[in-house]
Amino acid sequence: MQTTFTITTSGLGLYEITQEVSSWVRGSGVLTLFLCHTSASLLIQENADPDVQTDLMAFFSRLVPSADNPTMQFLTHTLEGPDDMPAHIKAALLPVSLQIPVLGGRMRLGRWQGIYLMEHRNSSHRREIAAHLSVDGTS
Amino acid sequence: MQTTFTITTSGLGLYEITQEVSSWVRGSGVLTLFLCHTSASLLIQENADPDVQTDLMAFFSRLVPSADNPTMQFLTHTLEGPDDMPAHIKAALLPVSLQIPVLGGRMRLGRWQGIYLMEHRNSSHRREIAAHLSVDGTS
Amino acid sequence: MQTTFTITTSGLGLYEITQEVSSWVRGSGVLTLFLCHTSASLLIQENADPDVQTDLMAFFSRLVPSADNPTMQFLTHTLEGPDDMPAHIKAALLPVSLQIPVLGGRMRLGRWQGIYLMEHRNSSHRREIAAHLSVDGTS
Question: Which N-terminal stretch is annotated as signal sequence (chains A, B, C) (predicted)?
Fold first, then answer.
């Protein structure tokens, strides 16, 4: 069983998709989410305190600064803007695919886990996530 | 086929679970391990020289220092202690899920590969790993 | 359905395997690629401008410098050369396994996505990737 989730982002940030994915899964098996882009990521993170998301974004902006930051002057792929190559680097560091076991119609997420798309570009983008659900024959 | 592996950790460090997982898998297919937490990670790493594990822990403690380190003063989510937000950041950087092909009852791990739970919190925690094995119908 | 892809590398760098993998997959289901090593990684990245690959390699060499770099003097696992422990660290940071949904015989890669093996050692290595394809019964 396959589908595509489409998310329109409005720049850098975390966009929660837990509910959308949750209402699609059924039965028992394993869910695969695959992001079809090289300048955004999928992420499972805490969905309770929004400060966690602020701090995550702040950390990754420091770990991989904008290309116009003096520490990043070694970058050569800069034609598409100072946020482009850092976006590719973050897309390498953070997951492009996630797999979550599904049992009795529910993803086996922990109590505090939410599923997010993390946008690494500054401007709005339309992002597609390919989803696949393997349903167990017998389990 | 699904199960849950439970590991009780005693603070920061790598806890090998290869043998426990190995004795659960059977047949041929693909194994999914999914960690139900946002302050620990799953990791496949060298299981020969224990120095590798020491160095891995040291590197990640330097890459993501404690919140009371001057370089981390931008963090805002600090109520649960100086090791909490760094734990979430490491949980973003390192895998929450692993998939390993299984053939003839054995995981296709390389000669030096072991499966680890990496605890990012300083104190003891009870960690659950949701496991799913897709067994091939015909292969 | 399982197979092994073997790649002989010639030191640090990205080696594209998209075409080899693409000609192996069929039907609809989900592909798992698992790298049987702890000093190399799998990566999905942009396959258009080669500068992206140069910049990725440059970033990771800065994030995880050679063990003879003064900032890395805390490393203890150095007997196998100054590139060995940094290779293990990069293998922790970057994916060891990838999952890609397959539909109608084609991987659901985005337009700019290629699949790469990233070699973290300086010298030539023979690398094995275990591949598994779950084919959907009904979808």
Answer: none
- Touching check for B117 and chain C: CB below 8 Å? no
Whole-prediction pTM: 0.97
Q: Which residue, among B46, B53, B135, would best test binding to C if mutated, counting the most C CBs under 10 Å from its CB?
A: B46
Q: Mutation test of the interface with chain B: which of A30, A53, A112, A117, choosing the one with the most B Cβ atoms within 10 A?
A: A30
Domain A2-135 annotated CATH 3.30.70.20: no
What ipTM was reported for this prediction? 0.95
Q: What is the DSSP letter of A112?
A: T
Contacts of B9 (CB under 8 A, 6+ apart): B15, B40, B117, B119, B121, B124, B125, B126, B127
Residue B57 CA to residue B119 CA, distance in Å, equals 10
**Residues A103-113 pLDDT 10s:** 999 999 999 99
- For A105, counting Cβ atoms within 10 Å of its Cβ (0-12 exposed, 13-18 middle, 19+ buried), the class is exposed
Q: Is the Cβ–Cβ distance between C134 and B30 less than 8 Å?
A: yes
d(CA B132, CA C54): 38
Q: What is the mean pLDDT of residues C111-133?
A: 97
